[in-house]
Amino acid sequence: MSTDQRVHKVCTSLVELGYEVTLVGRWQRKSMPLKPRNYATKRMFLVFEKGPLFYFIFQKRLFWYLLVRKADVLVANDLDTLMPNYLVAKLKRSHLVYDSHELFCEVPELQPHATKKRIWKTIEQWIFPKLTHVFTVNQSIADIYGKEYNTMVNVVRNVPMMQPTETPQTITKRDLGIDDGQSIIVLQGAGINIDRGAEEAVAAMQYVENAILLIIGSGDVIDILKQNVKQLDLENKVRIMGKLPFDELMQYTRLADLGLTLDKDTNINYKYSLPNKLFDYIHAGVPVLSSDLVEIKNILMQYEIGDTIANHSPEHIAEKINQLLNDKTKLAVWKKNTTIAARNLNWEKETERLRQVYKSFL
Q1: How far is CA 233 from the centre of its chain?
Q2: Alpha helix locations (H) across 236-362?
Q3: How far apart are CA 102 and CA 271, in angstroms?
Q4: Domains 5-159+347-359 and 174-344 share a fold
Q5: At CB < 8 A and 24+ separation, what contacts does 51-59 make?
Q6: What share of the chain is helix, strand, coil (3-state, %, to 5)?
Q7: What is the DSSP letter of 265?
Q8: Domain map of the chain by residue range?
Q9: Quick one: 15 exposed, middle or buried, by C-beta within 10 A (0-12, 13-18, 19+)?
Q10: CB 266: neighbour CB atoms within 10 A?
Q11: How many Å apart are CA 290 and CA 278, to the nearest integer?
């Protein structure tokens, strides 16, 4: 709840439309405090934080929470919140909107667990064809869902809100102990997990000249990355930072000369991914080096703001990074083009379809 910008932006848009909004999630021991918002929030404490018991208790708690409260519209974010919302919407005859942030059943974390995947897929196959109002994050995923369930799926990409041009930059290279002559590379995300290229990015820094890699966020491989940094003696070239509030995160991102998004084509969910970090880099004025995935590549080529790697070998990634960081003219052009891209890829422009759907309920 503290870092999910898509959910926050939807809530903010609904408030602007005239809705009284309550955002419901869970509290974890590692949860960051929530800054004041212009809508209500509710964090549920659950004894278990992962595993089958967590999901069972979470579904039950969310069902009863929604059942005893008045709501004209229920919004389910991703498959793990859909069933309680669907059941309550049927019982109370409320409108239901489903916002699928990914191909949930194809995430790599589920692939080794056939029983878990089958349970989630059964829920999806039961409810999805009955849905009327569905959103997702890019056209490739919309096409897959639409074809599988014969349902119209709206696309609202997870692009940032336009930032005020006078936003002050309060963090400098000097604050980080980085020389002005050193380049900064950034890899950020709330899901720095397996098969997202972070391990290779760290290994590549053995061969990158005069640059520092900042890894900002959380995920399953963070502890592995810390071990790799130590084993490869890269403490002076790689800094692993924790999860940060969005405004603070963007302070660091704006310092970068190059942003990385290196998801691998190892599953259909990553193959068609359009990561939030791509748009954050664009709005921060940071050129991008990406893996060769269709949705990302389309953006890079359309706006001429970056390049792709051919494979995930650390040596190749380092070669591309060195090549780009040494080509100051090209980086300057790409940086200028991010300004044009940001004027088109922003939440204010992207949400017209979202507003049309929600206005119909008022």
Answers
A1: 30
A2: 246-253, 268-271, 276-283, 294-303, 314-326, 328-344, 347-350, 352-359
A3: 11
A4: yes
A5: 55/80, 58/26, 59/83, 59/84
A6: 45, 15, 40
A7: S
A8: 5-159+347-359, 174-344
A9: middle
A10: 14
A11: 9
Beta strand 183-189 with 133-136 is unpaired
> What is the rounded distance in angstroms from the CA atom of residue 50 to the CA atom of residue 247?
28
> Cα 198 to chain center, whole Å?
15
Residue 60 has pLDDT above 70, yes or no: yes
With a cut of 70, say whether residue 125 has pLDDT above it.
yes
Residues ≥6 apart with Cβ < 8 Å to 165: none
Three-state DSSP state, 344: helix
Output the six-digit token pair for 239.
């800094």
| 18 phi, psi to nearest 5 deg | 115, 5
**Torsion angles phi and psi, residue 187, rounded to 5:** -130, 115
pLDDT digits (tens, 9 = 90+) for 281-324: 999 999 999 999 999 999 999 999 999 999 999 999 999 999 99
Tally of helices (H runs) and strands (E runs) in the chain: 15, 12
| Fold annotation for 5-159+347-359 | Rossmann fold (3.40.50)
By CB atoms closer than 10 A (0-12, 13-18, 19+), residue 246 is: middle
pTM of the entire predicted model:
0.86
Q: Is 173 helix (H, G, I), strand (E, B) or coil?
A: coil
The two three-digit tokens of residue 144, written as one number? 């897959």
Q: Which of 167, 174, 201, 173 is nearest to 285 (CA)?
A: 167
The model's pLDDT over 66-123, given as tens digits with 9 standing for 90+, comes to 999 999 999 999 999 999 999 999 999 999 999 999 999 998 888 889 999 999 999 9
Q: Which residues contact 89 (CB under 8 A, 6 or more apart)?
A: 74, 95, 96
Token pair for 298: 């389309």
d(CA 154, CA 145): 10
* Owner of token pair 């708690």: 61
Residue type at 304 in one-letter notation = E
Range 174-344: architecture per CATH = 3-Layer(aba) Sandwich (3.40)
